């Protein structure tokens, strides 16, 4: 069977665990060479080693994607190793759950650095290579939280709103250079991030019980279910899909 990403190079930020890792696996299975940018060295190296041992070409680069210098150096090393970039999955991100009035300015700035500045830095570094190679596809991780607000998530909601619009704005600015850019907007996912979010919401008495989650989206998504949507958006099957927001939430935002 033809593999959809044979001969392509895919860069995944936040690819060491969770949805990023599930996407690394899916892209590799579809024939891509995959570069991982992540700050979790142990998990990133372990994943790259495991996939390389089973015949895939996957390399881990230790990059904190909120840090401009590390992104510059990581991109240089990535291009040295792979020579090109066809697909960028901007996935790295984190969460802050706190009553709005308790949020410190540094916490606000840190969250924006990890969730939003990271997309600016990595996309800016990757795009010239994608354009030089004739074009490509970018997928940015947004969230149901970009359009559905939750008490104690003002900062997180605001960062995801920015990611939501970042994807759309890149799409319109770079369409003429054969770049597509879309956002994937997951509901709750069973990942370290998702588990941390649910535990923190519960600690503040914000509705996130098993029953409430079941009522809103049936169950938590698996990382693979989100990765499948990411791979679709990055593939030629989505060649006329550009600047869109694909909700993968089993109806959460449809209520
Ligand atoms: N889990 C959910 O319920 C959920 C729902 C919607 C959206 N999201 C989004 O998914 C992302 C979280 O990913 P996940 O759910 O796969 O969980 P995760 O925590 O397993 O994965 C996040 C990955 O990003 C990496 N990362 C975080 N900050 C980084 C930085 N500064 N530099 C480099 N790497 C960094 C982490 O090390 C980790 O490998 C966030 O963007 C979040 O907004 C998650």
Task: Name some characteristics of this structure.
single chain; about 260 residues; alpha/beta; Rossmann fold; seven-stranded parallel beta sheet; about 45% helix; globular; binds nicotinamide-adenine-dinucleotide
Description of the structure:
The protein has 255 residues and is an alpha/beta fold. The chain has one domain: NAD(P)-binding Rossmann-like Domain (Rossmann fold, 3-Layer(aba) Sandwich), CATH 3.40.50. The protein has eight helices and seven strands. The chain has helices at 18-29, 41-53, 68-82, 105-132, 154-174, 192-203, 210-217, 223-234; strands at 9-13, 33-38, 58-62, 87-90, 136-141, 179-186, 245-248. The protein has a seven-stranded parallel sheet with strand order 3-2-1-4-5-6-7, with helices on both faces. Strand 4 (87-90), helix 4 and strand 5 form a beta-alpha-beta unit. The chain starts with 8 loop residues before the first strand and ends in a 7-residue tail after the last strand. The model has no long low-confidence stretch (mean pLDDT 97). The protein binds nicotinamide-adenine-dinucleotide. Residues 14, 16-20, 38-40, 63-66, 91-94, 114, 118, 141, 143, 160, 186, 188-189, 191-194, 197 line the site of nicotinamide-adenine-dinucleotide.
